[in-house]
């Protein structure tokens, strides 16, 4: 698929991977584990629910 924006001579398009750091992955992992513990052991609603009811 051609995108007109990418055809402009003054545009440089680069991928965004700022969230892919060891610190970000560690934080994500710890948040996931905390949410699992909250639901299964503490019977609490987890933080950061996506599409939750």
What does it look like?
- This protein is mainly α and about 55 residues long.
- It has one helix and no strands.
- The protein has one helix at about 20-40.
- It is elongated and about 55 Å long.
**Helix and strand pattern:** H
Q: How far do the termini sit from each other?
A: 37 Å
Overall 3D form: elongated
Give the strand content.
under 5%
Structural class determined from secondary elements: mainly alpha
Poorly predicted segments: none
Chain-averaged pLDDT = 86
Largest sheet: none
- Count of helix runs: 1
CA radius of gyration: 19 Å
Q: What is the tally of beta strands?
A: 0
Helical residues, percent: 25-40%
Short description:
It contains one helix and no strands.
How does the SSE layout of this entry go?
Layout: H1 22-40
Task: Give keywords.
53 residues; mainly alpha
